[in-house]
Amino acid sequence: MQSLDLKVGQKLNEGKTKQIFELLDQPGLVLVQSKDQITAGNAVRKDQMEGKAAIANKTTSCVFQLLQESGIKTAFVKQHSDTAFIAAHCEMIPIEWVCRRVATGSFLKRNPGVKEGYRFSPLKMEMFFKDDANNDPQWSEEQLLEAKFCLAGLTIGQCEVDIMNHSTVAIFEILEKAWATQNCTLVDMKIEFGVNVKTQEIVLADVIDNDSWRLWPAGDRSQQKDKQVYRDLKEVTPEAMQMVKRNFEWVSERVKLLLKPQASSRVVVLMGSTSDMAHCEKIRKACTFYGIPCVLRVTSAHKGPDETLRIKAEYEGDGIPTVFVAVAGRSNGLGPVMSGNTAYPVINCPPLTPDWGSQDVWSSLRMPSGLGCSTVLSPEASAQFAAQIFGLSDHLVWCKLRASMLNTWVSLKLADKKLQACSL
């Protein structure tokens, strides 16, 4: 990757595996530079691993790209070079959020009697205060609230803690879904949040790389590919370090595959006449948001049933999984005729008018037996329903749906916080 010249200023921070530099010509942004260092047990064990910076940077850049394209708010801006990326400048919240699907590691020591492999549904959330001197003690939500951290002008209260909690679950579920496409179990993961100094917004920050999670191919611990392999070494030999490096490289190559769709999909919107165009454009716009191609066609099942069925056959014949959306006002013949003649899903989305809408809608709701088309009145919601169908087989569509759910929840939470502040 071509590294463009940046005006790099002073070092703002240095951790065990990375350095943060200010960017003089881009206020509000920083350069996150990875190091060829691997550590375990709060750097009790510490080794150089040639090429680790590039491997870690490639992994974290791909993970953040996946999350950002899904709709998760992160500090990541873009990969800058083989070993560095550009991010929004954040004041970091000194908490590691740990999310677990399978019980293993330190959880077993802290919870004797729980067997390794116990599955958490819902996910198990834990938080740890970042304090190397005291080995990052586990904290309760109450401790975090009582700490009253103030970062970049934002005080971390109940609202902010709830947002980070919900975000951690969504981020885990998105990465879990993505790794499942490579037949890998995401066992657990740790992440950190920061407050964007420009926007005062809580965003996913720091890095997510092979130090951040446990990853078991085929759900088999003996095949683990993450940093646990390094932690478990009886002694660090050059051969052992080569094995650790090979695992890290395996992950950095696989993580690129998480950005690729697993299945093709398409929504075909059939409208009874071009007077329904504005309604159909809303469906197409919403499909674009989910990354689903959308085709608009004009056909009337009443006036040209042969042509309607010919169009249907056109899209059934190329093997691309398709959801048909029927947009017909007055008497909806399109949806029922399509539903009775295709095994593909059909969604009615009638453009109802104020005068006859309450009567017209029955032609979409009351179906003859043997027809399975659904009716969704909102054009945006019909696209969302199509996305939910495709999300069963395409993780990228599912990830967008999951992030959208989170963002809706967060916006309601922030609106409530703002209203309460106005009422006081």
Tell me the layout of helices and strands.
Layout: E1 8-14, E2 18-23, E3 29-34, E4 37-40, E5 45-48, H1 52-70, E6 76-79, E7 84-88, E8 90-92, E9 95-102, H2 106-110, E10 119-129, E11 138-139, H3 141-147, E12 150-151, E13 154-155, H4 158-180, E14 184-196, E15 202-205, E16 213-217, H5 228-231, H6 238-257, E17 266-271, H7 277-289, E18 294-298, H8 305-316, E19 322-327, H9 334-341, E20 346-348, H10 357-360, H11 362-365, E21 374-375, H12 379-391, H13 395-423
Parallel strand pairs: 17-18, 17-19, 19-20, 20-21
Antiparallel strand pairs: 1-2, 2-3, 3-7, 4-5, 6-7, 8-14, 9-10, 9-14, 10-11, 12-13, 14-15, 14-16
Helix pairs in contact: 1-6, 1-13, 4-13, 7-12, 8-9, 12-13
How much of the sequence lies in strands comes to 25-35%
What's the main sheet like? Answer: 7 strands, antiparallel
Per DSSP E runs of 2 or more residues, the count of β-strands stands at: 21
Instruction: State the assembly state of the protein chains.
Output: single chain
Shape: elongated
Q: Which structural class best describes the helix and strand composition? A: alpha+beta
Average predicted confidence as pLDDT:
96
What's the Cα radius of gyration? 26 Å
The stretches of 5 or more residues where confidence is low (pLDDT under 50) are none
Helix content: 25-40%
Number of helices: 13
Distance between the termini: 53 Å
